[in-house]
């Protein structure tokens, strides 16, 4: 299993160029800071002790103003470089995470909370920005800028340099000691945030159902409780963060105070409380003031590192969830990928196929059946019998545990190029998904390069043109996420238009007429009948009234095909199909 820190370290090469530039600019800014302190010391010395007027110090002031402007520009460029470094990593991580989720497939997604996945793709990725844009540059500058200041201070006053060397390590040591507890709190905070985001999105998506069952107030109380837990976790993290800042400020202030005391003693020519053998030489005002100006800047990178250390903790906590997603086991790739010829897909055969979602509970148990060219097959059975599993196997979302799915008795589905295979399919689920965009864009999802004339023809054949033409902007009419603005029947017909546009050899339908009013059901059924002409079709049926015209009906129960035949053939037998007809359609006299 990948460690969160390892995931963050693996992304460093993507940001290395911009990080080096950011650190280089930061170091250059530090060098200019030393020059700025020297100029200030000279100006103050001239004004205080040399009684210089404005005309005499003007030659010093103009370079000082130029230094201010140059340092501001360098600071801006350094920030931009650090941002670009983080942006490179975020783009790569988001693409990697998205592709992994896509490769894991709908079967894996069915067991996840959509809110948690959305939180990972948004807030989770954004949380690593502080690590690359703030913490990593600060860590390098913490070593480089104090070292540059020490190199300048040591020849001028070895006692001050010694004080800096002794007090500086205390800051990162206490930062790490306190940070160890922050890491645990940050991980708990991230878990609370993911839980709150997932629950909130689920509630928003199910708001209509909650209103119907008068459960919205109860869920509001649950959200309030989860939000309060998140507030408490956030306050615990902030409490430790402020404690860390206070400790770091204390040690840096003590270090600056000690340096100021020792310089003040020597400027007033007072006796220092140290042995005469190691007593430092006297110091001038210019040198002492110059060192005092540099002292806060010596500790500033150490304090900044402590501040950005919390960004590192947050990034590690977010990376822990990203690692959990990326370590998801993907379906094994075939050793040799095959592609079908243009005239393939004449026959599909399930040969003793078995599949289990959980050990000991098979969804399919040595299931065998065939779908012939141009044949309309209906798959019926009770809930949990394995109907959806058959569709998922055909779509390549899951792979059989045992057995084979043969295409034209030659190629195994497991060994085919899935992208090439799916281009030959059309899938119409019970609740098709429309995306935000125009109606034409949603129909083109089946064939992105299709012309508007092809889109119009597909919509006409899907019985959708009659309502699209009545819309104010026709095919350019925008629809919202999940088809907001359209009725259920209209959404179903747009999805059917996709299938017509794709012109697939095999169509998989998951009860396309479910939950529709009689008028919409008649239109959709008419379109489905037209879609079935010249194509192989697998209809997963939940209502027996929609399977009477099928060429063959397969009755599945317990993961096995228990009956096969036409409606008239099966109704004459006293088997599971006839029993289902009696229960679901008691008005059928032959049952």
Topology at a glance:
Blueprint: H1 4-10, H2 12-48, H3 54-109, H4 114-126, H5 129-156, H6 158-167, H7 170-205, H8 207-212, H9 216-267, H10 285-326, E1 347-358, E2 361-372, E3 376-380, H11 387-394, E4 402-407, E5 411-412, H12 418-422, E6 425-428, E7 437-438, H13 439-443, H14 452-461, H15 465-468, E8 478-479, H16 488-502, E9 506-510, H17 518-531, E10 536-540, E11 552-557, E12 560-565, H18 567-572, H19 576-584
Parallel strand pairs: 3-10, 3-11, 6-9, 9-10
Antiparallel strand pairs: 1-2, 1-4, 4-5, 7-8, 11-12
Helix pairs in contact: 1-10, 2-3, 2-5, 2-10, 3-4, 3-5, 4-7, 4-10, 5-6, 5-10, 6-9, 7-9, 7-10, 9-10, 14-16, 16-17
Word description of this protein:
This protein has 591 residues and is of the alpha/beta class. It has 3 domains: 4-326, Up-down Bundle (ABC transporter transmembrane region fold); 344-424 and 506-513 and 535-591, 3-Layer(aba) Sandwich (Rossmann fold); 429-503, Rossmann fold, CATH 3.40.50.300. Helix content is 61%, strand content 11%. The chain has helices at residues 4-10, 12-48, 54-109, 114-126, 129-156, 158-167, 170-205, 207-212, 216-267, 285-326, 387-394, 418-422, 439-443, 452-461, 465-468, 488-502, 518-531, 567-572, 576-584, and strands spanning 347-358, 361-372, 376-380, 402-407, 411-412, 425-428, 437-438, 478-479, 506-510, 536-540, 552-557, 560-565. The strands form 3 sheets. Strands 6-9-10-3-11-12 form a 6-stranded mixed beta sheet, sandwiched between helices. A hairpin with a 3-residue loop joins strand 4 (402-407) and strand 5. It is elongated, with a radius of gyration of 36 Å.
């Amino acid at each position: 299993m990948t460690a969160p820190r390892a995931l963050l370290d693996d992304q460093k090469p993507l940001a290395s160029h911009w990080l080096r530039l950011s650190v280089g600019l930061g170091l250059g800014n530090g060098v200019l800071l030393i020059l700025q302190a020297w100029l200030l010391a000279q100006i103050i010395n001239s004004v205080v002790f040399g009684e210089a007027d404005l005309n005499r110090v003007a030659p010093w002031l103009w370079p000082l103003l130029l230094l201010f402007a140059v340092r501001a520009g360098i600071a801006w460029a350094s920030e931009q470089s650090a941002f670009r470094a983080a942006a490179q990593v975020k783009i790569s991580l988001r693409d990697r995470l998205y592709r992994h989720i896509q490769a894991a497939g709908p079967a894996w997604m069915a067991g996840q909370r959509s809110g948690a996945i959305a939180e990972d793709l948004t807030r989770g990725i954004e949380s690593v920005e502080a690590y690359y844009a703030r913490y990593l540059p600060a860590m390098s500058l913490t070593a480089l800028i104090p070292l540059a200041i020490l190199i300048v201070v040591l020849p001028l006053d070895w006692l001050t340099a010694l004080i800096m060397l002794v007090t500086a390590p205390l800051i990162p040591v206490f930062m790490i000691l306190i940070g160890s507890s922050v890491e645990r709190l940050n991980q708990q905070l991230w878990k609370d945030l993911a839980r709150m985001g997932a629950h909130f999105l689920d509630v928003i998506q199910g708001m209509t159902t909650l209103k119907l069952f008068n459960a919205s107030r109860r869920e509001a109380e649950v959200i309030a409780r989860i939000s309060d837990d998140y507030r408490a976790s956030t306050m615990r993290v902030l409490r430790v963060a402020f404690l860390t800042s206070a400790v770091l400020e204390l040690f840096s202030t003590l270090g600056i105070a000690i340096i100021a005391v020792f310089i003040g003693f020597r400027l007033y020519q007072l006796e220092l409380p140290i042995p005469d053998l190691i007593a430092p030489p006297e110091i001038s005002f210019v040198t002492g003031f110059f060192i005092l100006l540099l002292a806060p800047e010596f500790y500033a990178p150490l304090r900044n590192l402590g501040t950005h250390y919390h960004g590192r903790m947050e990034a590690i906590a977010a990376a822990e969830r990203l690692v959990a997603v990326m370590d998801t086991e993907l379906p094994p790739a075939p050793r040799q990928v095959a592609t079908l010829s243009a005239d393939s897909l004449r026959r599909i055969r399930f040969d003793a196929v078995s599949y289990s979602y959980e050990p000991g509970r098979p969804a399919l148990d040595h299931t065998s059946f065939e779908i012939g060219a141009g044949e309309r097959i209906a798959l019926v059975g009770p809930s949990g019998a394995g109907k959806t599993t058959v569709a998922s196997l055909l779509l390549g979302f899951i792979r059989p545990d045992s057995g084979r799915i043969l295409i034209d008795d030659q190629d195994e589905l497991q060994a085919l190029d899935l992208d090439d295979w799916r281009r030959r399919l059309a899938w119409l689920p019970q609740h098709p998904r429309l995306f935000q965009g125009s109606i034409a864009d949603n129909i083109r999802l089946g064939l992105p390069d299709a012309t508007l004339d092809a889109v119009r023809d597909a919509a006409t054949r899907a019985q959708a043109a009659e309502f699209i033409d009545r819309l104010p902007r026709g095919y350019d009419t925008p629809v919202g996420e999940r088809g907001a603005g359209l009725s259920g029947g209209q959404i179903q017909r747009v999805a059917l238009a996709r299938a017509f546009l794709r012109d697939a050899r095999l169509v998989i339908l998951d009860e396309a007429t479910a939950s529709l009013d009689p008028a919409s059901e008649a239109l959709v059924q008419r379109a489905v009948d037209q879609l079935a002409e010249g194509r192989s079709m697998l209809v997963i049926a939940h209502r027996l009234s929609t399977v009477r015209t099928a060429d063959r009906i397969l009755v599945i129960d317990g993961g096995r095909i228990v009956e096969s035949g036409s409606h008239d053939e099966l109704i004459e037998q006293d088997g599971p199909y006839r029993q289902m007809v009696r229960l679901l359609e008691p008005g059928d006299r032959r049952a």
